[in-house]
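hey
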């Protein structure tokens, strides 16, 4: 058996494709590439495919990770040559590496995620930077998710404004992405008073535990 880790993008063409559909897309891609997927045990065997983190609908990304198990060991160059042409246009593959079979699941290793949020919010750069500073100065940011109150502040690891060439605002975020402790860009925007403003959210990097 062999465990592979793929790094791939989710482009604008696939931004409204849900998490489960992305899972199915990878299963079909491996079938088209004629690579021998390994299956789980039990009455309803499923292909062993694990995505690191669900990307909300409408978001794009250049850093998605998926682990896939093969029934047989294959040369990585052979795998890459078979997979890249078979992958959907909206899920281009950037890298394929082999991972030890007993390495922890991606969901356990995941610690944080970097995002770039672009918004045409009708406020000045100085006003937005002031809001960011005020937010970071708070020791507690109470929010409600699924009818439960939680503190957003410890989930914000980095938050900064950056100029955009087209005159819109760019906000760079590093948010916690641990199990049961995940920050969401849209909730940070809401805390900044930008919940009513359209935004483009792009995931830049997934940070794993060493």
């Amino acid at each position: 058996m062999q465990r592979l880790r793929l790094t791939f993008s989710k482009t604008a063409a696939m931004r409204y494709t849900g998490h489960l559909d992305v899972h199915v897309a990878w299963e079909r891609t491996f079938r088209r590439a004629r690579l021998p997927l390994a299956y789980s045990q039990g009455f309803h065997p499923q292909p062993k495919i694990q995505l690191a983190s669900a990307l909300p609908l409408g978001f794009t990304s250049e850093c998605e990770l998926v682990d896939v198990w093969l029934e047989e060991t294959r040369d990585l160059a052979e795998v890459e040559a078979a997979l890249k042409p078979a992958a959907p246009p909206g899920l281009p593959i950037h890298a394929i590496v082999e991972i030890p079979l007993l390495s922890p699941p991606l969901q356990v290793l995941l610690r944080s995620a970097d995002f770039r949020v672009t918004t045409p919010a009708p406020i000045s750069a100085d006003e937005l930077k002031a809001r960011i500073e005020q937010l970071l100065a708070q020791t507690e940011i109470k929010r409600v998710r699924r009818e439960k109150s939680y503190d957003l502040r410890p989930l914000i690891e980095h938050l900064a404004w950056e100029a955009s060439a087209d005159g819109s605002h760019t906000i760079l975020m590093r948010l916690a992405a641990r199990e049961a402790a995940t920050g969401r860009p849209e909730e940070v925007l809401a805390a900044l008073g930008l919940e009513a403003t359209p935004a483009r959210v792009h995931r830049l990097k997934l940070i794993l535990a060493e």
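The domain at 109-208 is CATH 3.30.70 (Alpha-Beta Plaits). The chain has a mean pLDDT of 92.
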